[in-house]
Amino acid sequence: MRTPATPGTPRVWFVTGASRGLGRAFAEAALAAGDKVAAAARSREALEHLADTHGRDRVLPLTLDVTDRAAVFRAVDAAVGHFGRLDIVVNNAGTLSMGMIEEFTEAEARAQMETNFFGALWVSQAVMPHLRTRGEGHIVQISSIGGLGGFPLSGMYTASKFALEGMSEALALEAAQFGVKVSIVQPGGYWTDLYTAMRSTTPIEAYAPLRAELEKMWADGSVDSAPELAAVALMKLVDSDEPPLRLLLGGMVYDLAFDISRRRMETWARWEDVSRAAEHAIPAPGSEAARRH
Fold first, then answer.
1. Residue 161 appears among annotated catalytic residues
2. Whole-prediction pTM value?
3. Is 138 helix (H, G, I), strand (E, B) or coil?
């Protein structure tokens, strides 16, 4: 089943970070399916090419910095004004800052959260009034393998994805009453410019041995996939009658998710006695029941 429910009606997408990488692949897949796309990105040049290729009646290029909340609301309103509605929203814009947690300056830490978390939050807030008024729609939050657990050098990136996923879980429960669906997509490695455009902290010498160990682990390089494969999976997700809250993309991230979950459950089980002993309900302090107690 497609959103909207009317068979043969082109859906309208709002995709952030649509100029390259996964975002560009998502936009291309939507257009190949006969849908329309409001394509948003910081750089307008690549978006113009997308519009010229597929037609201005099907592609609305939007220059957008998702960290600017007011600009996000204006862009969403422009998309709705142009196409008349929104059906699928893909929060794909993201950045990667690498470094040990101790190394991050305040500005570097905040910058990582501004795009990956707050950017997605502003878009979610901006589109919800339109989607809930119509009583349908699908918000897709592009998270990461980093949303599964913390890893050396990517701690702040992971923090931004944990924040995104926590917010999105709550949003899914809040939006469901209006017929709006929310899905969190956790991709593994894809050949995008996320790594080439990443920023790095100033190294602290004490972490040199750990960096050397990590470099040895990564010596063979990563074997990533074509973004088009992620786009195929995304189309299956948005075409589903019952899309999941979470979708893993890739065999490596699938296996890692289960491994992390098993290790957490084993740890919780070992410490069960301590956990249960830490709870014993008592009346609210200062209440009559507490005084009697």
1. yes
2. 0.91
3. strand
